[in-house]
Write a structure and sequence with these properties.
130 residues; Rossmann fold; 5-stranded parallel beta sheet; two-stranded antiparallel ribbon; 7 strands; 22% strand; disordered C terminus
Length: 130
């Protein structure tokens, strides 16, 4: 089961301006658990791509917020989620069939409880699929 996690950057990720509470290590854990990682931000695409490269986390897409509908059409997944800190993040997620977590909810890594290609994950990341 492919699950895509799209992250806003500013106010959501620790590397944002302002910094958010979701660390790059949390994103790395999601990637290593089998999630598809992406960003959808007001930042320039070159800045988003440089961020993912700096942390050596492969992103399946980088997009401006208005491009989220195109990205969903281009990337096949069983479930799509966006994590952000603004009402516009929640609105664009809802308009495009993405589940949504607020940045403050993301600090508990709620995605780790979802079914992934590597099995069912607990919040601590242990595989409990048996």
């Amino acid at each position: 089961m492919a699950i895509l996690l799209s992250f806003d950057i500013d106010g959501t990720l620790e590397v944002g301006d302002p910094p958010g509470g979701i660390t790059m290590e949390m994103v790395r854990r999601a990637y290593e658990a089998g999630y598809l990682i992406a960003s959808c931000s007001d930042r320039a695409l070159s800045s988003q791509k440089a961020m993912w490269a700096r942390y050596n986390i492969p992103a399946v897409f980088t997009a401006s917020k208005h491009q989220l509908p195109n990205m969903r059409a281009a990337i096949t997944a069983d479930a799509y989620y966006h994590i952000g800190d603004r009402d516009t993040d929640e609105q664009i997620a809802a308009e495009n069939g993405f589940g949504f977590w607020w940045n403050h909810e993301g600090v508990s890594e709620p995605w780790l409880t979802l079914q992934t290609p590597h099995g069912v994950q607990t919040p601590g990341g242990e595989d409990v699929s048996g």
